[in-house]
Amino acid sequence: MQQSRQASGTITLNGNGTTAPILGIAPSTVTFSDTEVGSTSTGIDVTITNVSADSQTLTSVAGGAPLDGVNFGGVQNCVGVTLAPGASCAFTYSFHPTTVGLHSTTTTISITTEAAAAAARAGRSVGVRALAVPAATVESGIITLSGTGIETTTTPTPTTTATATATTTTTTTALPAPGANLTFPLGLALIMMLLGSAFVAVVRRSGR
Q1: Residue 173's pLDDT band (boundaries 50, 70, 90)?
Q2: pLDDT tens column, 136-168
Q3: Between 8 and 39, whose confidence is greater?
Q4: Residue 7 belongs to some domain of the structure
Q5: Distances in Å between the alpha carbon of 155 and those of 18, 55, 100, 159, 189?
Q6: What are the counts of helices (DSSP H) followed by strands (DSSP E) for the chain?
Q7: Can you tell me the distance from the alpha carbon of 81 to that of 92, in angstroms, rounded to the nearest whole number?
Q8: With DSSP H G I counted as helix, E B as strand and the rest as coil, what are the percentages for the chain, rounded to 5?
Q9: End-to-end alpha carbon distance in the chain
Q10: CA dihedral over 186, 189, 193, 199, signed as positive or negative
């Protein structure tokens, strides 16, 4: 009868446990359209969303202000709010270039929720020994802001002024040619001379 043999071996299993995210921060890159120097762009939101299954109260918000506060600005409505699952608040950034050219900066947003804060406050158990204080879960993200400042030169549109041009019509009358129009005056003079001579002759005859 054949004796069976049993083979043995060691199987190694590896894995990494992670904590489910509580908040989502997006987008991580904000690019503004070209903006004229001295004006302010339309605001762009970086949205903070509660991606957990429970309501979360945002107890602490750190950072968020752009490192370059000269060309970028921002406001937010997240401090102290309670977000239901799927609800969100926002950091709204704007671009107001002071010089022409590309400007870029970063900012870090760090948010602590009430659940994480409660875990951080847990220190002792009713018992004889202290328990380790759980680390607070802080959701954070690095946001990159960039935009190009431009300078618009306005070329004035030439205005057309209607100028009335006076048109002078000169009617030129031709001067008479030498000897023209003299026929009638000479004929009349000749008749008058003949009549005068006849009158004189009549007077002389009468005198005799």
Answers
A1: very low
A2: 457 899 999 999 999 986 656 666 555 545 444
A3: 39
A4: no
A5: 60, 56, 19, 12, 81
A6: 2, 10
A7: 16
A8: 15, 30, 50
A9: 211
A10: positive
**Which residues form the domain of 144?**
23-123+133-150
Place of tokens 């030169």: 153
Domain assignment present for residue 109? The answer is yes
Residue 170 has what DSSP assignment?
Answer: -
CATH of residue 36's domain is 2.60.40.10
Query: Which three-class secondary structure state does DSSP give residue 61?
Result: strand
The SS3 call for residue 179 is coil
Per-residue 3-state assignment (H helix, E strand, C coil) for 106-150: EEEEEEEEHHHHHHHHCCECCCCCECCCCCCCEEEEEEEEEEEEE
Q: How many domains does the chain have?
A: 1
Q: What is the mean pLDDT of the chain?
A: 75
Rounded mean pLDDT of 182-195?
47
Q: Which residues 6+ apart lie within 8 Å of 114 measured at CB?
A: 56, 57, 58, 59, 82
With respect to residue 71, please indicate whether it lies within any of the assigned structural domains.
Answer: yes
Query: What does the alpha-carbon distance between residue 60 and residue 120 come to, in Å, rounded to a whole number?
Result: 13
- The string of DSSP letters for 75-107 reads EE--TT-EE-TT-EEEEEEEE--SSSEEEEEEE
